[in-house]
Amino acid sequence: MLILLADDHELIREGVKLVLNENSSEYKFLEAQDYPQTLNHIKTSEHIDIILLDLSMPGMKRLAGLKQVRKSAPSIPIIVLSVFEGTEDINSALSYGANGYVAKSSAGKALPHAIEQVMQGETCLPDTFVNSSGITTGTQCDYRALPELASAEFLLTARQLDVLQFLVDGYANKEIARKLNIAEPTVKTHLSNIYRVLGISTRTGAVRIALNMGMQ
């Protein structure tokens, strides 16, 4: 299965690939980091099976960009990946042609099931949206956490969780320091402790586990 993975944050793309490859060896990826590159892949690649699309990429213009992607790829399923989980955001994405909607905070748990459901012709939505809106035409994405990964959240301090969340969002150490109003060496110390607790040694590994933890 060839997936067009369109997101401007490299760490997000790497985390998504790691999560999906852990579930299946059948996935292959095309990557785009902005809106023009996304459209170019659609235009030049004949066998894309599904598109995972961030609406906040450079040049994307959110719903207008989604509308154009749908126009350019009328028969390819599209799952929107977003930091926004509001009912209006999800409704709008569906009305502009999305087949599914997965919050980035839960992507590690939801994506494998969402892809499976969308490829079967279902509309996969966050469970909170389905319940609050009373929609019966969509299928709830499977948000079950992996217990051994979810439990890691309770071993991290509140500040470490803050740092990990910014890591998932694609921020560099200097940017994290500015966001949290702490020194950059302090960020590095937090990262070292996070790596130790999670049993990994790279930023990408931390992102993968954070996605599986379903951090909010």
UniProtKB/TrEMBL annotation:
UniProt cross-references to InterPro entries, sorted A to Z: CheY-like_superfamily (IPR011006), EvgA-like (IPR051015), NreC/VraR/RcsB-like_REC (IPR058245), Sig_transdc_resp-reg_C-effctor (IPR016032), Sig_transdc_resp-reg_receiver (IPR001789), Tscrpt_reg_LuxR_C (IPR000792)
GO biological process terms held by the UniProt record: phosphorelay signal transduction system; regulation of DNA-templated transcription
The protein, known as: Two-component transcriptional response regulator, LuxR family
PANTHER family given in the database record: HTH-TYPE TRANSCRIPTIONAL REGULATOR YHJB-RELATED
Gene3D superfamilies the record matches: 3.40.50.2300
Organism, scientific name: hydrothermal vent metagenome
GO molecular function, one term: DNA binding
UniProt entry keywords in alphabetical sequence: DNA-binding, Phosphoprotein
Residue ranges of every copy of the Response regulatory domain listed in the record: 2-119
Residue ranges constituting the HTH luxR-type domain according to the UniProt record: 149-214
